[in-house]
Amino acid sequence: MIQGRIFSRIRANTRLFSSKPGPQSSPAQPESGRKTPFDSLGYELIDSSPAEPQAIQRAVIDGLGPNSFTVSGVRVAGSVLVMPFFSTIWNVDHFERITPSSLALVKLVVPRPDILVLGTGATLLPLPPGLKEFFKDIKVNVETMDTKNASHTFNVLNQEDRNVAAALLPVSYEGNKSGK
């Protein structure tokens, strides 16, 4: 008799081993006006519905120094590689050291830039023949100009929502003055 009562209670509670939430189940709600440390991350941890999407800001070259750049409010010392939405330090300190491997990021990002603006320092320097082939192979147009004009060109094209990148040597770089 006792065994019958136990099993009848188990059979009566069909939700016991169910993975479906019961009718009384609902996510816990925070007290009204209560904030958590995680609210600024964009998700309600208790409700788990995504917050309003935030627009990603396009990169802007804000300033140039003799040996540095300011990109989207962040000062970067040395050369810089700027993509539509981010920038990174570019480990190139001389024009002669610009090689296809130093520009590998341009080849790897998706979507690939339609145009690369190459800032050659204080003066305009011609693009080496090896780089012409590299850009032709990866189907990226390249414009070479002094760094100041390259920065302005990048900003204009990027604000027009063009898929543009910039590889910029510092303004202090003057190239090979001796003509060798």
Automatic annotation (TrEMBL):
Keyword Transport among record annotations: no
Keywords attached to this entry: Ubiquinone
Pfam short name (any one): DUF498
This protein's record includes keyword ATP-binding: no
Assigned GO CC terms: mitochondrial inner membrane
GO biological process, one term: mitochondrial respiratory chain complex I assembly
Coiled coil: none
Name of protein: NADH dehydrogenase [ubiquinone] 1 alpha subcomplex assembly factor 3
